[in-house]
């Protein structure tokens, strides 16, 4: 028996796409939109949880902690995007 090579479309695995370069950080408006959407989502969940489980204590604290934590991480990310500068090409070559 002779070996046959697989069809041309199955000879090699497809290489993964190159990672996208994201040179531009989010604008302040983008952070505000994402935070507003997340807080609206939390508000909907909070109302549903209160309707379904009216005698459950600690829901308010839980949802407030989620909202405050998300806002804090967004502020950190915004400041990091604005203050951090990537290392120069020479510094990358030395490392």
Along the chain, the helix and strand elements come as: HHH
Assembly type: single chain
Give the structural class: mainly alpha
| Net shape | flat
Strand content: under 5%
Helical segment count:
3
How many β-strand runs? 0
Helix content: 55-70%
**How far is it from the N-terminal to the C-terminal residue, by CA?**
54 Å
**What Rg do the Cα atoms give?**
24 Å
Mean pLDDT score: 82
Short description:
This protein is mostly helical. The protein has helices at residues 28-52, 59-83, 89-94. The protein has a domain at 25-82.
Structural features:
95 residues, mainly alpha, 3 helices
What does the model show?
The chain is mainly α. The protein has a domain at 25-82. It contains three helices and no strands. It has helices spanning 28-52, 59-83, 89-94. The longest helix has 25 residues, at 28-52.
């Amino acid at each position: 028996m002779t070996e046959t090579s697989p069809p041309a479309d199955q000879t090699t695995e497809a290489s993964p796409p190159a990672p996208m370069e994201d040179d531009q950080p989010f604008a302040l408006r983008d952070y505000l939109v994402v935070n507003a959407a997340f807080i609206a989502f939390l508000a909907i969940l909070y109302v549903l949880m209160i309707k379904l489980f009216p005698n459950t204590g600690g829901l308010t604290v839980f949802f407030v902690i989620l909202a405050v934590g998300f806002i804090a991480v967004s502020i950190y990310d915004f400041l990091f995007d604005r203050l951090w500068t990537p290392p120069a090409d020479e510094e990358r070559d030395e490392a």
